[in-house]
């Protein structure tokens, strides 16, 4: 098993970050790592996700949503082929910071299966997570209401 993680602080409350995170149709406007996504953030539903890891081939898959804890956590399970060949358990965590007006946003994925050593491009995925986090921060902070 391999784990990849990336985190960033966003100057907006978790509810605001959550709105952008689950607005899959808008990913095309801002998300360099997942430029296409569709579906509904509901447990048991399948999403269609296209990832474009920097320096690696693009890939489209249909993960199943496993956790929705609005506005704190969204998770899915993606597979290539049969179970235990190449599985990815991806989660997004939104943690309110002490002031309640900022959020620590974290992506976390655990990869498992016999094909992981052959197929996983860790560096590309890490760069993709980092790029998505930075783009989400820019988008949310640009759209956040101005504080008085």
Describe this structure in words.
This is SRPBCC domain-containing protein. The chain has 148 residues and is of the alpha+beta class. It has one domain (2-143): START domain (Alpha-D-Glucose-1,6-Bisphosphate, Chain A, domain 4). Helix content is 26%, strand content 35%. It has 4 helices and 8 strands; from the N terminus they run E-H-H-E-E-E-E-E-E-E-H-H. The chain has helices at 14-21, 27-30, 116-119, 122-143; strands at residues 2-10, 36-38, 48-51, 59-61, 64-69, 73-79, 87-96, 103-112. The strands form 2 sheets. The chain has a 5-stranded antiparallel sheet with strand order 1-8-7-6-5, covered by helices on one side. Strand 6 and strand 7 (87-96) form a beta hairpin. The longest helix is centred in the last third of the chain and has 22 residues, at 122-143.
Proportion of residues in extended strands: 35-45%
Largest sheet: 5 strands, antiparallel
Order of helices and strands: EHHEEEEEEEHH
Strand order of the largest sheet: 1-8-7-6-5
Distance between the termini: 47 Å
| Mean model confidence by pLDDT | 93
The count of strands amounts to 8
Domains counted in the coordinates: how many?
1
- Low-confidence blocks of residues: none
Our Rg estimate from Cα atoms comes to 15 Å
Helical segment tally?
A: 4
In CATH, the architecture is: 2-Layer Sandwich
* CATH level-4 homologous superfamily: START domain
**Class computed from helices, strands and strand pairing:** alpha+beta
CATH overall fold name: Alpha-D-Glucose-1,6-Bisphosphate, Chain A, domain 4
Write down the CATH class: Alpha Beta
Shape: globular
The helix content is 25-40%
Protein name: SRPBCC domain-containing protein
Pfam families: Polyketide_cyc2
């Amino acid at each position: 098993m391999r784990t990849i993680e990336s985190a960033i602080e966003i100057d907006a409350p978790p509810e605001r970050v959550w709105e952008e995170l689950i607005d899959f149709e808008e990913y095309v406007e801002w998300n360099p790592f997942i430029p296409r996504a569709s579906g509904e953030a509901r447990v048991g539903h399948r999403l269609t996700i296209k990832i474009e890891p920097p320096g690696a081939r693009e890939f489209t898959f249909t993960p199943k949503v496993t956790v929705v804890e609005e506005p704190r956590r969204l998770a899915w399970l993606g597979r290539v082929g049969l179970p235990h060949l190449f599985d990815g358990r991806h989660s997004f965590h939104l943690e309110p910071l002490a002031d309640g007006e900022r959020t620590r946003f974290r992506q976390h994925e655990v990869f498992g299966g016999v094909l992981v050593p052959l197929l996983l491009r860790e560096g590309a995925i890490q760069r993709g997570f980092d790029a998505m986090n930075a783009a989400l921060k820019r988008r949310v902070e640009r759209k956040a209401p101005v504080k008085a």
